[in-house]
Amino acid sequence: xxxxKITDIRDFTNxxxxxxxxxxxxxxxxSITTFNTFSIDGRLLKDFFDTDSLNKxxxxxxxxxxxxxxxxxxxxxxxxKRTPLSFKIVLHLSRSGVEAAVRNTDMGISSEQIxxxxxxxxxxxxxxxxxxxxxxxxxxxxxxPEQLWxxxxxxxxxxxxxxxxxx
Length: 167
Description:
This protein is of the alpha+beta class. The chain is built from five helices and seven strands. It has one domain (3-166). The radius of gyration is 16 Å and the shape is globular.
């Protein structure tokens, strides 16, 4: 697990809520506290979709909304003159992203063994923390998958010019 403190919160939140930097991630959950607490469960409800839309979504193995689809709702809650009291956003790599990560690196396990590669974002007390997480479907003593995910996130942050301090 990697723990990072984001040093330029304004730039980061602009990239998160206005820009497209995080759009390919899926949303696990979000909670934003302003004058109320607004909570979003990122799981897609299959009963909502017509057959064609559901087929398009499920053919890619998606079970959660993409951040790009939820981002405008979150931005509408946050925008204004006052900073939110807090927010917690849990993103995860899509199933196709997990498969590509396993295919392009030596994680030492198959993509079927990985339940999720997570990026947790928590803003509270004017501090923004970013932590990584990995969920496996089987027990493993091998730390390579976790280390590779951490390296991928560090590269992603550097590539998108997001400033941070490692904790």
